[in-house]
């Protein structure tokens, strides 16, 4: 057998053995250990341009930025191809696909045989969260995709510094194996976006291992993000008494200079990144970004829940992002150092997507790589097209972002896309009620995952695709967390809905920056400065307590957005029951109690 050339290496025996085992099986032409240096990424970017995966964008407007178009069948997370292979089937629960770990390996390992032929195998050491954290959470991703290397470099803390600390401490690490599943025969011409029709995104929680095959799309291939920081980490968190959640984290400061940190769980494509980068529309209020997608929370010495953002970059939905809706995101992107995937390109080396500007440019190259003009009546960018940008470039980043032990959370929001039923904002009565609100959260499906769009589904804590274990145990873990702290130290829990519609299908609430008016009400509730009215679904604002100074929306629309409608909620009951029935015996009894309470209160409403 021909000797594989290797650049770099490790003194970490377990890691070394694993990398060698994978290389012997996948047979890459070379193995490259990623050190994270500038020279290294310059070389890799140049190779990606050479391969046609990347197009370099105009240096004067988007410095050090690149454009990529995926295979048209590799544009989103593939939930039906995602597995939790716990040893026991019951530990995967009813929300996950499951297969016996050995059976899955017997199926997958042969797919990896020779799967990296003709390609470079990269080894990326990374840490999720801070290297200086009390208990840094390490990982290593093996991948045959240079696009993944370039993206991981933005999304996580990677490279030689991480590897050195892993070698020094011998701490456990998650083993992530990724292959696009597209070996190259001698002399075979590569395609810009190699991938395989067969896709598997597989987690072995007991072994801290992830095997991803066939896809190059971010959520399937950047293994630090959804696979590790949510699915695997949720299992670690259950075992170690903390929480790994699909939540943004924002810092909110009122005109008097008082501060609260608020976390928010919304399903993919439901507004986390936008809210995390919000600019308050009311004078004197200030919002800053801590995290936009993932929050790891654990109790601090003072008994409060502290959250860190384990990521290092933003992987944001491009369409709908513009100077009007999210000027902070636009300013972040314009600093460059970004990768844009499946958006349209302008003839002068810029990017464009639906919603960036009101008027589209006269001519574009669309996400299929074809000439596009506005009169064609089709979108130029894929609805799940993304920007991938260093978080430190965000002009509103909070300094505490770099705090290894995180920020104390005063409130948690749950939200989703609901055309009807769910009011603009309500507050849960207590932690258990809030857990019920989270466990029954519902939202219309989006383009972030393959499959139908716009279908209402239950999405517990916005974690449906990301809970790495039994969903009943997960809800129980939430209840347990609530028992570990005094009620007054726990975050208050709110439910929001920016997406309620009028009869003509228009949004009742303007959303985006104006959501700060809702944040203000939450802030005042946290501080105990404002009364609320009781309702069967929790506390509702008195309409006059929502600050509408300078808001262009009509009073009727605001009232309709805020409205609690008992009849709509009575129609929700059978859906909640149907959802709970799926848990079988795994549903904590406290959830049955909360459902009974809701039913009773609705009967009297
Ligand atoms: P994430 O995937 O949860 O981070 O969601 P994003 O913040 O990326 O937003 C997803 C989509 O929802 C984008 O097209 C946004 O423009 C849109 N969006 C975000 N916030 C709002 C809002 O408050 N109102 C409305 N109508 N749309 C929003
Ligand atoms: P999102 O993250 O929540 O920002 O959409 C990506 C995803 O969930 O696929
Ligand atoms: Mn997400
Ligand atoms: Mn996002």
TrEMBL record:
Instruction: Please explain the role this protein plays, according to its UniProt record.
Output: Catalyzes the conversion of oxaloacetate (OAA) to phosphoenolpyruvate (PEP), the rate-limiting step in the metabolic pathway that produces glucose from lactate and other precursors derived from the citric acid cycle.
Descriptive protein name: Phosphoenolpyruvate carboxykinase [GTP]
One GO MF term: phosphoenolpyruvate carboxykinase (GTP) activity
HAMAP family reported in the protein's UniProt record: PEPCK_GTP (MF_00452)
Under which pathway is this protein filed? Carbohydrate biosynthesis; gluconeogenesis
Cofactor(s) required for function per UniProt: Mn(2+)
* Keywords from the named record: Cytoplasm, Decarboxylase, Gluconeogenesis, GTP-binding, Lyase, Manganese, Metal-binding, Nucleotide-binding
Which residues does the record give as GTP binding sites? 269-274, 386, 417, 512-515
């Amino acid at each position: 057998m021909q000797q594989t050339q290797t650049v770099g290496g490790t003194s970490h025996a377990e890691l070394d053995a694993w990398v060698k085992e994978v290389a012997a099986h996948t047979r890459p032409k070379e193995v490259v250990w990623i050190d994270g240096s500038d020279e290294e990424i310059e070389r890799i970017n140049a190779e990606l341009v050479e391969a046609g995966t990347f197009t370099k964008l105009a240096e004067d407007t988007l410095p050090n930025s690149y454009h990529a178009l995926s295979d048209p069948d590799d544009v989103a997370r593939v939930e039906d191809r995602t597995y939790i292979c716990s040893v026991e089937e019951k530990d995967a629960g009813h929300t996950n696909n499951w297969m016996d770990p050995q059976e899955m390996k017997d199926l997958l390992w042969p797919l990896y045989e020779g799967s990296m032929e003709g390609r470079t195998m990269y080894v990326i050491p990374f840490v999720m969260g801070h290297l200086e954290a009390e208990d840094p959470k390490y990982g290593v991703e093996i991948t045959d995709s240079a696009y993944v290397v370039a993206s991981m470099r933005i999304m996580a803390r990677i490279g030689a510094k991480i590897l050195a600390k892993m070698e020094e401490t011998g701490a456990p690490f998650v083993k992530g194996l990724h292959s696009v599943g597209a070996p190259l025969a001698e002399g075979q011409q590569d395609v810009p976006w190699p991938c395989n029709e067969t896709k598997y995104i597989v987690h072995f929680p007991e072994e801290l291992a992830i095997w991803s095959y066939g896809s190059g799309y971010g959520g399937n291939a950047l293994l630090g993000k959804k696979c590790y920081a949510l699915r695997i980490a949720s299992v670690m968190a259950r075992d170690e008494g903390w929480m790994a959640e699909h939540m943004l984290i924002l810092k909110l400061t009122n005109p008097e200079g008082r501060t609260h940190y608020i976390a928010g769980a919304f399903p993919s494509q439901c507004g986390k990144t936008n809210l995390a980068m919000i600019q308050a529309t009311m004078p004197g209020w200030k919002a800053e970004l801590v995290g936009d997608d993932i929050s790891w929370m654990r109790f601090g010495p003072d008994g409060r829940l502290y959250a860190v953002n384990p990521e290092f970059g933003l992987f944001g939905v491009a369409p709908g992002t513009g100077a009007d809706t999210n000027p902070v995101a636009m300013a972040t992107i314009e600093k460059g150092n970004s990768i844009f995937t499946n958006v349209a390109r302008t003839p002068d080396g810029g990017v464009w997507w639906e919603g960036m500007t009101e008027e589209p440019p006269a001519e574009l190259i669309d996400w299929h790589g074809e000439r596009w003009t506005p009169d064609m009546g089709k979108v130029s960018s894929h609805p799940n097209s993304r920007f991938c940008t260093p978080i430190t470039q965000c002009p509103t980043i909070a300094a505490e972002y770099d705090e290894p032990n995180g920020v104390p959370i005063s409130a948690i929001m749950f939200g989703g896309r609901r055309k009807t039923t769910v009011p603009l904002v309500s507050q849960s009565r207590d932690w258990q009620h809030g857990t019920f609100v989270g466990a029954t959260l519902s939202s219309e499906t989006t383009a972030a995952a393959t499959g139908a769009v716009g279908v209402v589904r239950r999405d517990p804590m916005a974690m449906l695709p990301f809970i790495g274990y039994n969903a009943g145990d997960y809800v129980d873990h939430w209840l347990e967390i609530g028992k570990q702290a005094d009620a007054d130290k726990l975050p208050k829990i709110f439910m929001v809905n920016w997406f309620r519609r009028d009869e003509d299908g228009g949004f009742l609430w303007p959303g985006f920056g104006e959501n700060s008016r809702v944040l203000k009400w939450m802030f005042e509730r946290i501080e105990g400065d404002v009364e609320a009215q009781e309702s069967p679904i929790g506390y509702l604002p008195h309409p006059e307590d929502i600050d509408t100074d300078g808001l262009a929306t009509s009073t009727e629309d605001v009232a309709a957005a805020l409205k609690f409608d008992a009849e709509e909620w009575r129609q929700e009951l059978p859906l909640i029951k149907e959802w709970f029935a799926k848990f079988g015996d795994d549903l904590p009894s406290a959830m049955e109690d909360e459902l009974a309470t809701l039913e009773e209160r609705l009967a009297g409403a």
